[in-house]
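REQUEST ID: PR-0412
SUBMITTED BY: lab tech R.K.
PRIORITY: routine
TASK: structure prediction, single protein chain
INPUT:
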Amino acid sequence: MINMMIINGYKARINYDSEIEMFRGEFIGLNGGADFYAENVKGLQEEGEKSLSCFLSACKEKGIEPKKNYSGKFVIRAPEDLHENIALAAAASNKSLNQWVVESLGKSISM
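STATUS: complete
OUTPUT:
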């Protein structure tokens, strides 16, 4: 299970920090760090909104785009046998390797 919370359109990963006995939220996909802590879901929502607001204000002041930009390209390393099996599955589906991988990844995250 992925512990994710969406606050004002921004995604945050949620974990439990046993040392301080609180939940920690951390926004992902940003051009900087923004985290928040609370004891319950309602508190996470409230603290997340505050943290995000501060982060967005700082970005605006500095002229920084808040969200990371992604090129649409990345390199993956896989064992030779997995690479072969993926290539065979793509060919059997009459798809390019790239097309097959993109579709498979999209299904795995429920796009």
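NOTES: The first strand starts at residue 4 and ends at 7.
REVIEWED BY: pending
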